[in-house]
Amino acid sequence: MRLIEDLTARLRDALAGRSSSAPGAADPAPAPLVDSRPPLRAGWVQPDRTTCGSACLVAARALGDPSYAAWLETGEVGGRARDPRTPGRRFADEVLATHLRTNRWTDAAGRLRWPWPRGLGTTPWALVQELSATGGTTPPGTGHRVRTISPRRRGEAYDAVARAVANGHAVPLYVGNRLLPRHVVLVVDVAAGVDEPWLAAYDPSSGRLVRLPREDFVRGDLRVAGWSEPWFAVLPTAGRAAAAD
Questions:
Q1: Which residues fall in a compositionally biased region of kind Low complexity (predicted)?
Q2: Which of 49, 110, 175, 224 is packed most tightly, with the most Cβ within 10 A?
């Protein structure tokens, strides 16, 4: 087991070297958002065990689109009849529809890709494609990328996520154990804290915000839905979405 964990850590470190900026350089990111975001509704819980990533996508869209957030809450939108479903049912149905879209043969822009079994959740690269095509807290067409988080460079990754969130962007974060990523949360706020800085993340397994202290993040000792290790962050970039994404 220790050998497998060591090999996994080495692979993550190698991938992190390819997916991060040069040491000391800031990750390219869009300009700070100027419009205020609607508050994240409490109680949005993923409808099944495999839809944490999709729930984060729906929550990110609600943060970036006030009219979508209002529709999720009230069922009302200009020019349409009122949706009779409850807010919880609307959210669940949107999450399930998003899960279907992110795991099929074509992405949100209609480009072919390898599908992914829905029973295994959603890959970070599928989140990149969905956010780049349809937007989250960023305008549609904004590029996104996956940053692999090396156990040796967690501090750099934390700072990259904190910079993006401080500029108003919500960042999906994959967490798990030492061997595999197992869950997705959405980082939505950053605070200095009294003793140490921390990130606030929407956890779709509970529908609540959880704290991710910097020290725990760097140690790989988070306490999020039973998982401790940060694995991937899906970050916005300064450019438009590439055709090959």
A1: 16-36
A2: 175
